[in-house]
């Protein structure tokens, strides 16, 4: 039997790695027609290393270093294809900042880009950050980043200006904080990749064999017929009851209080149901409001919450909208997502990801002579030019802010950026603290 020596084995591995590099460079320059991973037909891009799965020699430190070197070179080639000779400033291993100016109809757009390669720095994770421990709070992007030691961040989802409550779905560490609005598009972040799709709520209450559909969670009421759930994340007191409505406080599955007025929200293992009285009467069936509070044999009210699509493997979700790029094509569904009022030229924030699993965050300055702002279709074309296979718009206007290492790098229309509800950040896992 011919057994290679350790030195010969390392030489062989280095040769193999170089051959792989040559193959990848050839594929990249020849284009997608020869690309063996194919054109993405799904909204899922996994950040799983091709080398780590197909060349199982990861125990060798020299080999791992060679693989990382190959990944870095491939990324550098990819960056050059996307951004040309534009200066690329290294922020951290796997994180670069690009500043450029593009012209649409001879009008300038000043663009800032953060690109993150998760292969090169697995210790950095993409997470939404909240302004405070309750939904009705606002803070600057820099403030949120400093509290969580974020390497870089942009402003996040739309929110109710008066309170700061996110308008749309928000989930952090698998805890659903708010439900979706108008089934708008959202970004899902898994352990090894990303998903992007329009998301709806699939939630219900069950009691004594009866089922009641839940329309939303921790969102402002839009219809008096909706059944809403308010948890401790909302705050200490539920909102005003709708006309002909009633509220029920539930803790540990038991009804503890009912009233036509706002109720104290149980801060542990509980929530408040706010719904039309007619729906509650039917849901509780033959039970009477006063009698049910006295019955010791009450059965539990169960709350079941899922999303559609069912993103069981998703850790974090942040809402945006509308879509900008879908399946690698410009796709702006602002009518379907009810975004018609924001179609003009404005400062913009967007996020997306490439088929290789690189994550891209973008801000475009606006409302000034040197950068007039972008329309949604212009923004979509820019995200596609950056090779995003999926991309979506985030809150824009005065909210559009990008920070790197505690310093704002774009030019918000309000100096320093306005206070916002949440942000999307690159955070080192050993320094992550999502709570105030």
Q: Which short descriptors sum up this protein?
A:
436 residues; 7 helices; disordered N terminus; 27 strands; six-stranded antiparallel beta sheet; 3 domains; Jelly Rolls; eight-stranded antiparallel beta sheet; alpha+beta
Structure explained in plain terms:
The chain has an eight-stranded antiparallel β-sheet, with helices on one face. It has three domains: 80 residues, no CATH class; 226 residues, no CATH class; 104 residues, Sandwich (Jelly Rolls). The longest helix has 25 residues. With 436 residues, it is α+β, with helices and mostly antiparallel strands. 19% of the residues lie in helices and 33% in strands.
Structural class: alpha+beta
Strand runs, count: 27
From the spread of the alpha carbons, the general shape counts as globular
Helical fraction equals 10-25%
> What's the tally of helices?
7
Residue windows where pLDDT falls under 50 for at least 5 positions? 1-7, 27-42, 47-58
Distance between the termini: 62 Å
Task: Please describe the biggest sheet, giving its number of strands, its sense, and whether it closes into a barrel.
Answer: 8 strands, antiparallel
When the domains are counted, the total is 3
Radius of gyration: 25 Å
Give the mean pLDDT: 86
């Amino acid at each position: 039997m011919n057994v290679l020596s350790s030195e010969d084995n390392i030489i062989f591995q280095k040769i193999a790695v170089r051959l792989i590099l040559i193959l990848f460079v050839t594929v990249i320059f020849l284009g997608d027609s020869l690309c063996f991973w194919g054109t993405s037909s799904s909204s899922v891009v996994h950040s799983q290393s091709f080398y780590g799965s197909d060349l199982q020699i990861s125990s060798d430190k020299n080999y791992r270093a060679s693989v990382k070197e190959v990944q870095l070179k491939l990324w550098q080639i990819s960056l050059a294809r996307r951004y040309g000779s534009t200066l690329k400033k290294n922020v951290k291993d796997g994180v670069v900042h690009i500043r450029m100016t593009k012209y649409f109809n001879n009008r300038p757009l000043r663009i800032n880009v953060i690109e993150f390669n998760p292969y090169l720095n697995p210790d950095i994770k993409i997470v939404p950050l909240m302004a405070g421990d309750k939904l009705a709070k606002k803070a600057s992007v820099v403030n949120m980043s400093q509290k969580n030691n974020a390497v870089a961040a942009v402003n996040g989802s739309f929110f109710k200006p008066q309170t700061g409550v996110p308008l749309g779905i928000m989930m952090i560490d698998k805890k659903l904080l708010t439900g979706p609005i108008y089934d708008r598009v959202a970004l899902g972040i898994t352990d090894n990749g990303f998903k992007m799709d329009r998301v709806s709520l699939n939630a219900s209450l069950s009691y004594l064999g009866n089922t009641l559909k839940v329309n939303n969670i921790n969102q402002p009421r839009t219809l008096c017929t909706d059944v809403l759930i308010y948890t401790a994340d909302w705050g200490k007191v539920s909102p005003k009851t709708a006309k002909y409505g009633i509220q029920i406080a539930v803790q540990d599955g038991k009804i503890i209080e009912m009233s036509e007025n706002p109720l104290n929200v149980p801060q542990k293992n509980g929530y408040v149901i706010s719904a039309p009285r007619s729906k509650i009467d039917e849901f509780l069936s033959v039970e009477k409001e006063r009698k049910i509070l006295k019955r010791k044999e009450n059965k539990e009210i169960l709350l079941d919450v899922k999303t559609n699509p069912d993103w069981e493997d998703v850790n974090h979700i942040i809402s945006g909208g509308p879509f900008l790029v879908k399946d690698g094509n410009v796709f702006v569904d602002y009518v379907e997502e009810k975004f018609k009022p924001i179609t003009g030229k404005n400062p913009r924030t967007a996020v997306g990801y490439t088929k290789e699993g690189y994550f891209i965050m973008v801000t475009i300055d606006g409302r000034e002579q040197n950068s007039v702002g972008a329309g949604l279709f212009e923004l979509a074309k820019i995200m596609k030019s950056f090779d995003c296979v999926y991309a979506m718009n985030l809150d824009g206007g005065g909210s559009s802010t990008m920070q790197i290492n505690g310093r704002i790098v774009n030019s918000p229309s309000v100096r320093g950026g306005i206070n916002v509800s949440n942000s999307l950040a690159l955070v080192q896992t050993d320094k992550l603290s999502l709570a105030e």
